[in-house]
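Lab notebook: predicted structure, single chain.

Context: the supervisor wants predicted structures on file for every construct in the current expression panel, including those that have not yet been purified. This is the next one on the list. No modifications to the sequence; it matches the entry in the shared construct table.
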Amino acid sequence: MTPTSVSLEHIRHSLQASSHTLEEIWQNYARVWHALGWSKAQLRLWLRCLPDVEVSAAETDNPSFRGSPSGSRDDLGAIVHSILEAAGKPLPLSQVMALLPGGIIATEPMIRAAVRAHPRLAQTGPLVKLA
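Prediction complete. Output recorded below exactly as produced.
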């Protein structure tokens, strides 16, 4: 692991302990953002994409971020599995993405990886199906 990746993990763990505003995170870890060459907008995007971090006051200039309680979010594979069970049929990857619950942000590669890792899911061409 690089020092920067260790720092990013440290930041994620600090969010589990308490809530921090975007400005606090930006100021407290300025060396990390400088080393990565990130702007505040990139930091905000990274924080919003973390699956175990919740955001409050998201529409403000200085939202708060806090780690979600342990076990409150299912892993992506389990979420995809529940979507397919509810649909009762295989679905195109794009439709699975559209059916993700609010607050879950995932890209196609993330969903493909979750499908490959889940023992009860498979992907055949563009379709994701129960295995």
